Amino acid sequence: MPGLMATPPGQGEEEGASGLVEMGAHWIHGPSPGNPIFRLATSSCLLGLEAAREENQRVEAGEGTVLLNKAVRTIRWRGSFREEGDEARDFPVRVECEDGDAFLADHVIVTVPLGFLKEHHQDFFQPPLPEWKVEAIRRLGFGTNNKIFLEFEQPFWEPQQQFLEVVWEDESALEDPSTDLEANWFKKLIGFVVLQPPEQHGHVLCGFIAGKESEYMETLTDAEVLSTMTRVLRMLTGNPCLPAPKSVLRSRWHSAPYTRGSYSYVAVGSSGKDIDVLAQPLPEDPEDPRPLQLLFAGEATHRTFYSPTHGALLSGWREAERLNQLFEATGPALRL
Ligand SMILES: Cc1cc2nc3c(=O)[nH]c(=O)nc-3n(C[C@H](O)[C@H](O)[C@H](O)COP(=O)(O)OP(=O)(O)OC[C@H]3O[C@@H](n4cnc5c(N)ncnc54)[C@H](O)[C@@H]3O)c2cc1C
Question: Could you tell me if 130 and 278 are in contact, meaning their C-beta atoms sit under 8 angstroms apart?
């Protein structure tokens, strides 16, 4: 087997092709008809290998909608831009990409992660966002959760086992965890999911680690992570001769420049109100003749379901509906 590989964006696993793993969202939290991700997944028969097929990964956008699959450098708003040969049209928003391409738009739904916004809001938006929105961006938290995949020649767990839980003897929920990250980072591991079925994945465990310890893990080499994981598993199983994993693959969401973490949380000092503020479209003045230039979606903008994917989906629907209502009132070709 060639070892583990992350599934490239837009491509899933092929049936029978082992070695591909998902670096991000793992579960549908609250799998019930009330969860729109669950509804979408079941109605499209996506809760199995079908999910990986290329035709099931397509996204359809309505007429007049551009789904940008490029890195964006700057979003200019409150403007009035003219393109050569298109003199008749004014556009309030201009999206400038890293590769030099630019797109003009009436409305842009911004879905970049809060971690990216925290780092780049000042240069990403021109003119910069109003201070009340920046404050909400600063106050809300954006944490890190990473996966560590370990591939084994042979399983050392029972075939029916789904999860290996890790409990440390000296742990107490009442004490602060040790601050010595170098010595103790691995103690933040909550356990390992056994990837099923082995015919598809091989013998692979997926460990989860969050917080500062997870960010510290990102600074280590693969060899260091592999050797620590081997030590941990030998300790947990009580078998000092347990064979080391044959390969390791981990996510590094905190170091990834376009995410800078994994998902949001309501940090100490912030509240649900900050989430609503983050979601508020701009310009803020309802009398402004160019309404809804910038709309904000993404998990961090959903007051109830921030963090998981269904919050992200619901927030996108919310902003699409906001535009629908604007179009109902004014017609889609809103040109002033
Ligand atoms: C390890 C891990 C496990 C998780 N497990 C679960 C789970 O089990 N269940 C669950 O429901 N959720 C889970 N989540 C959370 C889930 O991934 C998020 O809720 C979801 O991805 C949020 O979607 P989003 O659209 O808000 O942001 P994202 O999915 O982060 O999408 C934002 C996109 O913006 C892009 N971007 C950033 N900057 C730019 C730029 N300048 N130009 C262009 N594009 C840019 C990013 O590359 C990214 O593709 C997990 C996340 C992680 C990291």
Answer: no
Which pTM value belongs to this model?
Answer: 0.89
Using alpha carbons, list the distances in angstroms from residue 137 to 48, 141, 188, 211, 304.
37, 8, 27, 19, 17
Closest by CA to 266, choosing from 97, 143, 153, 150, is: 143
Distance 24 CA to ligand 1 centre (A): 7
CA-proximal residue: ligand 1, atom 46 (nearest) = 258
Centroid of ligand 1 to alpha carbon of 112 (angstroms): 8
C-alpha span between 158 and 165 (Å, rounded) = 14
CA 135 to chain centre: 22
Q: Is residue 96 part of a domain?
A: yes
The pair of structure tokens assigned to 102 is 């630019």
Q: How many domains is the chain partitioned into structurally?
A: 1
* Distance of alpha carbon 20 from alpha carbon 26, whole angstroms: 14
Residue numbers of the domain that contains 295: 68-141+260-330
Output the CA 100–ligand 1 centroid distance in Å: 25
**Structural domain contains residue 179:** no
The answer to whether position 166 is within a domain reads no
Reported as a single tens digit per residue, the pLDDT across 118-153 is: 999 999 999 999 999 999 999 999 999 999 999 999
- Those residues with Cβ within 8 angstroms of residue 302's Cβ, 6 or more apart along the chain or in another chain: 275, 279, 311, 312, 314, 315, 318
DSSP letter for 190, please: -
DSSP category for residue 64: T
Which stretch of DSSP H or E encloses residue 160? none
